[in-house]
Write a structure and sequence with these properties.
Blueprint (H helix, E strand, L loop, with lengths): L13 E5 L3 E5 L9 E10 L2 E4 L9 E4 L7 E9 L8 E5 L13
Length: 106
């Protein structure tokens, strides 16, 4: 019978600002699906969803080296060898505005 069951949804997704204006994503590795092919990574901005990878990544981490300066959400899915994709797990992200230097005139 064909495999139509999607793998488990990734858990523990986190997004943190990293050096050189990049964003580092990490999540918990999938240990439940032996036929796991990897993970797909997406970015959602202003209602538009863009895939950030052309092929599944095998490691439970990803660095967005060309992030947007708008509030956005990142999503990760699991995909198995048969091409079944899990539901998305989402995390919101926005760069913190850099504090202007506070100068006192007194």
């Amino acid at each position: 019978a064909p495999d139509t069951a999607p793998p488990a949804v990734p858990t523990g997704l986190a997004a943190v600002a990293a050096p050189r204006s990049s964003v580092k994503l990490s999540w918990d590795p999938n240990t439940t699906d032996p036929d796991l092919q990897g993970y797909l990574v997406y970015r959602q901005v202003l209602g538009q969803v863009h895939a950030l990878v052309d092929a599944p990544v095998s490691d439970a981490r990803f660095i967005d080296t060309d992030p947007v300066r708008l509030p956005c959400a990142y999503a990760v899915t699991s995909i198995d060898e048969a091409g079944n994709e899990s539901a998305r797990t989402l995390v919101g992200f926005s760069f913190q505005p850099e504090d202007p230097e506070r100068r006192s005139d007194s």
